[in-house]
Description:
Layout: E1 12-15, H1 20-32, E2 35-40, H2 46-57, E3 61-62, E4 71-75, E5 85-86, H3 91-101, E6 107-111, H4 114-117, H5 122-131, E7 134-137, E8 145-148, E9 155-158, H6 164-177, E10 181-184, H7 192-199, E11 204-207, E12 210-213, H8 219-222, E13 227-229, H9 234-246, E14 252-258, H10 265-272, E15 277-285, E16 288-295, E17 304-305, H11 317-324, E18 330-333, H12 346-356, E19 360-364, E20 367-371, E21 378-381, H13 387-396, E22 403-406, H14 419-427
Parallel strand pairs: 1-14, 2-13, 5-6, 9-10, 17-18, 21-22
Antiparallel strand pairs: 2-4, 3-4, 6-8, 7-8, 10-12, 11-12, 14-16, 15-16, 18-20, 19-20
The chain binds shikimate-3-phosphate.
Amino acid sequence: MAGTAVPLRVSGTVRAPGDKSITHRALMLAAAMRGVSVIRGALTSADARSTAACLRALGVGVSPVRAGAVVRVNGRAWRRPKRSLHCGNSGTTARLLLGFLATKRFAVRVTGDASLRRRPMVRVTQPLVAMGASITLERGDGLPLRIRGGTLHAVEWTLPVATAQVKSAVLFAGLGAGVRVTVREPVRSRDHTERLLHALGAPIARRDATVTLEEAPGWLTDCPPLDLTIPGDASSAAFLVAAALVAGAGELRIEGVGLNPTRTGYLDVLARMGAVVTREALREVAGEPVGDLVARPARLVGTVVTPTEIPSLIDEIPVLAILASRADGETVFREAGELRVKESDRLALLAANLRALGVASEVVGNDLHVLGTDRPPRGNVDTARDHRLTMAFAVLGHLPRSDVRLSERMSAGVSFPRFFEILGRVTA
Length: 428
Ligand code: S3P
């Protein structure tokens, strides 16, 4: 984009890819049920394929996870896989699957790519071991690990940090084993598992940030197979919203986006920063609020993102930091330490890459500070093959007179197939 001074125009109507969190949950639940489930609108990215591949290795029939296709999952009793289960880059695949594997009477080794092997697993193995699973980590706190499930007992677990992956793993273990589980979080994390199970009639209840699944032996295998439509991913939509906000002209509509309030913290922060992103055509799909997002160019001002807001926008901090770099004044993300253990150390890499583009940014303790500027971003960005860093910085690369050189673009396909094609289309 270097050299052009024409204001960026972002316009059109697009559809966000299927929600990643709900796709993982739907595939796994369907695989653990009996009979053929039908899943429409599933995400078809690399992460979703990692889950499908693991389920196939466990003996479950999963039809190809490809663009436009309805995914059919032939749920059955899982069998011991011949090889290690490889979760690719997907933390959600690894952690949620462990919840189900904790109930199986066979041993299996679970691993992932270099990024996933660096991510913490003890946070999920601890409650599963407390319930009765045997788990051996080959080294330190990460993958690979070996799990042998068995007869599990009820558990009441308090999480020191809000994490939907661990919460869901414990709920799935309780569901598979037919035992009562309670999970307490400091702040409520995304609640797709709870909503899906509630919509299916499971005995699940929540109070504030505590969720309890009652003892329900046989519920999972007695439950009729799923017939589910998955909403668009609010996190993927956020990159497109950001492109529309930093533009100088145009209006972008993103259709069919999941608007679960445990995921839309970024829209509240953007409203505080002066953006007008309207939610239209609101409806409900399988217990999840869904709507269209309409975004237009905006003059943004800095804000403070508080610790209690972090879980509701944890995956949007990269793109919010990018927007903060174009806002008037400073933005601070308070207590964002969880970013260190995502697909990369997002806290350090956001600050370093923003600085490389001429933006003042630093990490102080667990807080990320970003000072906005009008200067065109120019420089090299090390994406560390982290999809959300790649997509966030790609948005900046569309600004007039910018020159943002990404170290790679492939990683976007982890969560957003055809991201660059769609971004190119709406900015053309
Ligand atoms: C997810 C939960 C979050 C999020 C991740 C998906 C999920 O992780 O960052 O992209 O689907 O449950 P944590 O639970 O580790 O915070």
